[in-house]
Design goal:
There is one protein chain. The protein is built from nine helices and six strands. Helix 2 runs parallel beside helix 7, helix 2 runs antiparallel to helix 8 and helix 5 runs parallel beside helix 6. It is of the alpha/beta class. It has a six-stranded parallel β-sheet, with helices on both faces. 53% of the residues lie in helices and 13% in strands. The radius of gyration is 20 Å and the shape is globular.
Length: 232
């Protein structure tokens, strides 16, 4: 029993040390690529763990963040000539020149050589992944990319599936595989780093998709106007 306890304690300490040493390797704009996986019109109907309007708003918030930062972006769909439907028009319109991989049938995007080739061509090692559905299209490619040596960040609020129970199980599976879970606002803030770079641009990005943030900006603008009026 003494040996077992000692072994367990040593093992736990080793694990904690290993995790702590690599716990926060933050997103680096120069090494980040965004992968939008199977955000398709038909599959959108399967998203039940978020309100439809909220979910679409989150997806576009993430997409507009990628656009704002000029980050490498790849779009992919699965069998779009079937019930899965085509890529969300809003995404296609936002990234007209981005690599677009219409997979003929592979469920796991990483099984498509053209998709993997496009990812490698970016030269980036940090992948920000979102998609429909979380437990299949997102989980499969996230774990595959992690196994291939990439650092993977899954955007939870821009990925959707059948239910909260399914979503939570998917998150646990990915976390166990070393995937980092985040949300679109955190991704944007982590890439932005410092308000002094462009407070107007970042504030506008957030206010467009986050009503609460829009209220903050309205309050700030009011205070600025009042201060200016007082000086005059």
């Amino acid at each position: 029993m003494r040996f077992s306890i000692t072994t367990a304690l040593v093992g736990a300490a080793t694990l904690i040390s290993a995790v702590s040493a690599d716990f926060y390797n933050r997103l680096n704009l120069n090494d980040t690529a965004f992968l939008f996986v199977d955000h398709q019109t038909g599959l959108l109907n399967l998203v039940q763990d978020y309100n439809p309007d909220t979910y679409l708003n989150n997806v576009m918030g993430l997409a507009e963040s990628a656009k704002y930062f000029g980050a490498a972006t790849i779009l992919t769909t699965s069998r779009e000539d079937g019930p899965n439907g085509v890529l969300l028009p809003e995404l296609k319109k936002l990234f007209p020149d981005a690599p677009y991989i219409a997979r003929p049938g592979q469920i796991n995007a990483w099984d498509d050589p053209d998709f993997v080739k496009a990812v490698k061509k970016t030269g980036k090692k940090q992948l920000v992944i979102s998609g429909i559905v979380t437990d299949v299209c997102v989980t499969f490619v996230a774990l595959s990319a992690k196994k291939a040596g990439y650092e993977v960040f899954v955007v939870t609020d821009a990925s959707g599936t059948f239910s909260e129970a399914v979503r939570d199980a998917s998150w646990l599976r990915m976390q166990a595989g070393g995937i980092q879970l985040t949300n679109w606002f955190a991704v944007a803030c982590e890439l932005g780093r410092d308000w002094r770079k462009d407070i107007t641009g970042m504030a506008a990005l957030f206010a467009k998709r986050l009503p609460a943030y829009a209220h903050i900006m309205d309050s700030f603008a009011g205070a600025q106007a009042a201060a200016l009026a007082a000086k005059n």
